[in-house]
Structure to design on (378 residues):
């Protein structure tokens, strides 16, 4: 999506160690119009996968996921990283390594909102190693649901996430695919 | 907002101790159409306050804040509860007690995205004691910004948040005001 690529080029900053800072429009400050456009694009890309629910992980997946849900007229579930007191004792839980946190984080979904037979479209901000999305796919599997697609705002193709998720056999779309940070610059596919 | 009150009556569940569970459409599963309607309503209510930025706290404030930002054509900043590695060393930080977590949490904003002279509209999911919103207002103040309004999806009027925030001297709007859980039922204003 050109709109997103242009924004990354204009305002993204490469911090080294594979970390791209997009805090000005995705990860801390959010540009709602951009997220709306991204949601619209995901809705177009995944129009035919038969999704019945959007699944994402808190925190930065929420904005793109909610707009995707709006344009597809689907509810959105965000996996929590801590179990809130409103959640039942019996939950769906898995662990996933967090690249930006350098440790394992829990991904928790209440079985109230992810049920057997659901067709799940996973939306997130980044696809790097694929570990978070793999965790979300495991949650869907535990619930007896089926993953039908994966959409991310930004893919770092050189971190291998797409290959790691290939076994799911579902379409994977990224709106901006970064192939390298060679020379400290951002290079797109 | 009747749409929200109806939804709370139909799907909200009172868990005791003043805790209202709305995990089916706000706090874990999100109904994008409802959040869009809420954002539209906030945009109408705060059309004349001169806001230049929306401020919320992760996690559950993000969806209503982003839609409010979209309808007001304003960027949205969500205060983080942990400092991500993409944030500069020097941040704006305050502590606020979390009702649902039973401990103090940090609210962190990068000075890159909350600057002196900004006119801040605070949006959040709940207004209970007002402690989180008070924390967000402190962050705005430290930044040299000015709070110009406060909007929440659900107010629990009996927890005194509106009075606690009165010293800010700004309009406070809630889309659903719960006056009591007497008899385990949800009573609106």
């Amino acid at each position: 999506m050109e709109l997103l690529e242009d924004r990354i080029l204009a305002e993204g900053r490469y911090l080294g160690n594979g970390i791209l800072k997009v805090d000005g429009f995705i990860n801390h400050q959010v540009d709602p119009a951009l997220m709306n456009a991204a949601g619209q694009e995901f809705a177009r890309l995944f129009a035919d996968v038969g999704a019945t629910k959007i699944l994402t992980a808190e925190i930065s997946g929420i904005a793109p996921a909610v707009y995707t849900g709006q344009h597809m007229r689907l509810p959105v579930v965000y996996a929590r990283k801590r179990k809130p007191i409103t959640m039942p004792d019996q939950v769906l839980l898995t662990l996933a390594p967090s690249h930006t946190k350098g440790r394992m984080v829990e991904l928790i979904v209440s079985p109230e909102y992810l049920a057997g037979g659901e067709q799940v479209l996973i939306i997130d901000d980044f696809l790097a190693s694929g570990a978070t999305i793999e965790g979300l796919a495991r949650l869907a599997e535990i619930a007896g649901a089926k993953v039908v697609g994966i959409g991310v705002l930004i893919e770092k193709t050189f971190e291998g996430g797409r290959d790691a998720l290939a076994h799911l056999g579902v379409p994977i779309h990224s709106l901006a695919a970064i192939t390298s940070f060679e020379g400290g610059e951002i290079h797109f596919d």
User: Anything to note?
Assistant: The longest strand of chain A covers residues 146-156. Residues 115 and 143 of chain A are 6 Å apart (CA to CA).
